[in-house]
Design brief:
The chain is of the alpha+beta class and 85 residues long. Helix content is 19%, strand content 31%. It contains two helices and six strands; from the N terminus they run E-E-E-H-E-E-H-E. The strands form three sheets. It has a two-stranded antiparallel ribbon. The longest helix has 9 residues. The two termini are 22 Å apart.
């Protein structure tokens, strides 16, 4: 994302299967940087939310993380970030 853009970050995890998904781990490539607690950046929130294993995700269930505008996060996330489950 470009600095000072009005882009949003919208990360959704959805179980499209017909059974419960267990022990989900989310990782980011490149890894999310450490952000001081005093900074109110979305990267800190994403790291806190997805650092833990997601115990269960029921069929059809969606976890959604949205934040926008995301200009402040652009400095730490960069243009090329990917999430894997």
């Amino acid at each position: 994302m470009a600095e000072n853009s009005d882009s949003t970050i919208d990360l959704r995890l959805r179980n499209y299967g017909q059974t419960v998904a267990d022990d989900l781990r989310v990782s980011f490539d490149p890894p999310l940087p450490e952000v001081p607690a005093s900074e109110r950046l979305v990267t800190r929130f994403l790291k806190q939310r997805y650092d833990r294993t997601i115990a269960h995700l029921s069929p059809g269930q969606t976890l959604s993380t949205s934040n926008g505008p995301a200009a402040a996060a652009a400095q730490t996330l960069g243009d090329q970030s990917a999430a894997s489950v």
